[in-house]
Each structure stands twice: as structure tokens, then as C-alpha cells.
Amino acid sequence: MRVVDEGGDDVPPGQPGEILSRGPELFAGYTDPAMTKEAVDADGWYTTGDIGVLDDDGWLTITDRKSDVIIRGGENVSAAEVEALLAQLAGVAEVAVGAAPDERMGEHGCAFIRPRPGGDAPTIDEVRRHLDGAGLGRQKWPEELRVVDDFPRTPSSKIKKYVLRAQLRKSPL
Q: Which residue, 132, 151, 152, is CA-closest to 94?
């Protein structure tokens, strides 16, 4: 296993990067050879699409999915970090943050919030005050807020974030 930066170089312990793996347990490939070529390099390293951090003892913590990273003006913003803070807001039952297209910055964050039953969703101003109070850098704040009754889900009840990202591409702010 390796954790690498955008250029494919190993990152030091404590630094986030994309997780690569290889070994005898690695699958033989996809049925579409083009997908295999994209996912597995010439040395047999499989690109997992996960972001993680190795500690000094070699233990791995998976922190994000590469597809869940918002690239705002060249800076990577972890959707999971923003979601964890927004989940603490009063009135929020569930939250998902995704990348919305942005003409100037490339992408910006959009928070999808499902309010608690009988409650009101926070306003964008309340979201910003909360994130400011939590010490989150302004560049990581969502610039858009969408209130939902429920989320599209997988059979195991996980939120289908790829569906939310597709909605953002179809109907930008």
C-alpha cells in the first residue's frame, strides 16, 4: 500500500494522499480493458479513489473519497470535514456536501441539508456563522445550500452522493 500526492509521489506520514494498493489479492481487472488501464498502472498499483493518511507506525486512516473532494480554485476541500461540522448544527438531521460547478473557481461547495422532523433547516448565514465559530477557513464554507426532504440512497441506506453531484451539474445555482 502507498499514499501518494497528485504527482504520484509518496507522501510523508501524517499527510493526506490517494491510497494505492497492489498484491496477490488484487482483482485481475475490469471487463472493460480501458477501465483497467485507467485504474491499474504499469507497475500493478491500483488507484482506489480513497484519500487517507498513514501514521508513523504505518496504520492507515481513510479520510475521504477522491470524488468527495471539492477543488475550489486549486485548493482541495474535504466534503467530509465540512459535513462533520454541519451535522452539529441544531435542526440538522442529515447533511451531504458536494462539488457544484463554479465558473470562476472551478468548483464550490454545496450543502444538502435534511432538517429534523418538524424543524427548520438553517439558513446559509447560520451555516456560515457556525463554520466560522468552528474555525473552518472561509474558502471551505459552502457557497450554496439546498434543503431536501430525503436523500437518494443505496440499498444499504448510504447517500448516493454521485446523484447529488449530477443534480448540481444539471441545475447550478
A: 151
Residue-wise pLDDT tens digits, 128-163: 999 999 999 999 999 999 999 999 999 999 999 889
Cβ 49 vs Cβ 8: under 8 Å: no
Query: How distant, in Å, are the alpha carbons of 9, 76, 136, 166 from that of 91?
Result: 43, 28, 20, 26
Q: What DSSP letter does each residue of 41-85 carry, written as one string?
A: -TT--EEEEEEEEE-TTS-EEEEEEGGGEEEETTEEEEHHHHHHH
The pLDDT score that the predictor gives to residue 173 is 61
Tell whether domain 67-170 is in CATH 1.10.760.10.
no
Q: 2-58 domain in CATH 2.30.38.10?
A: yes
pTM: 0.72
Is the separation of the CB atoms in 46 and 10 below 8 Å? no
